[in-house]
Amino acid sequence: xxxxxxxxxxxxxxxxxxxxxxxxxxxxxxxxxxxxxxxxxxxxxxxxxxxxxxxxxxxxxxxxxxxxxxxxxxxxxxxxxxxxxxxxxxxxxxxxxxxxxxxxxxxxxxxxxxxxxxxxxxxxxxxxxxxxxxxxxxxxxxxxxxxxxxxxxxxxxxxxxxxxxxxxxxxxxxxxxxxxxxxxxxxxxxxxxxxxxxxxxxxxxxxxxxxxxxxxxxxxxxxxxxxxxxxxxxxxxxxxxxxxxxxxxxxxxxxxxxxxxxxxxxxxxxxxxxxxxxxxxxxxxxxxxxxxxxxxxxxxxxxxxxxxxxxxxxxxxxxxxxxxxxxxxxxxxxxxxxxxxxxxxxxxxxxxxxxxxxxxxxxxxxxxxxxxxxxxxxxxxxxxxxxxxxxxxxxxxxxxxxxxxxxxxxxxxxxxxxxxxxxxxxxxxxxxxxxxxxxxxxxxxxxxxx
Length: 450
Description:
Rossmann fold, 30% helix, six-stranded mixed beta sheet, Metallo-beta-lactamase, Chain A, globular, single chain, alpha/beta
């Protein structure tokens, strides 16, 4: 039901004939507005949908969940405990964003759902544990149930899981977004490796060869932050409110314990604070490092909001961890970033995925001294500050995903959630190294039989 082969509005329909169907994720496209940015739910209409699965609470996987639930009014939604708590504030924030965009950009169909509707829909959400067999009626697999499922930790963000579907002796595994490398907080994925008949895997980093280890990248970033502060500047890290903000708050705290960076004001956005509170709440109930570390208590970040940022000037020695990670127009990082550009002592450092067509992508492609448009109404601005990218991805390296595919050795490997270059790399590697595996890149909107 995803409309194109790219990192977009992820959603897939798995049809098991007389035993029913399931929907895997229901995301919103990060760049497209209105109904164009939603999955095409038409193939699921009239089907016997047994359940909807949410792998994690990033917008490109959960943003259209209310629309999928509206299509199937009696169907339960299964997710991890972490996703259960994170998805609700994210979707309510999405309503607020859509209301603003409706007025600013004249998008009449916005909001696509309301706060009141969300309050009703959440009653159909079901929280499930890891590596336990579930039927669609609850835990403990009935002997005669032809279709069951289990969740496995995906290591991407709090609550991220892969979904293992057991159907009459066949095993179908959908990875969602994966990370096979330990992060500062989240532990690496723990996925099944035995007898996977059909593997449906993300391919986000397929066009990016492995470069440096995470520890090396962090050390380079810390040195750049320290150098900026020594030169009298301030640092802006445009960052995703969920996942990246919490990882970096933890990293800053750990660096302080080593005598690095120096204790100084740290600013985060309001949504980042809300998600950090959930990370703290579930610290000892989730698969993570440093369960005793309370992000909001130990880091003591201040909150930067829209009213404050309008008349705010960056202060030397301050660290700003502000969303959005791609500096989308009208977000705090975009507004604050424009105030960073003119001062050569300041630095803007990116640590996550940056779409080349986003304001962040444009800024990264602009040499120092040239001009960039971060916001259409502001026009061109000269880039005098330092701008760098540090790849601290929370997605699995392509080499690690390929290693997992080869270890699992599925009969069929379906490649999703990747741009054309990423999909092509995986297909070529699998065809060369394991030609007996049937590789499928599902065309958007078409049915594939396996």
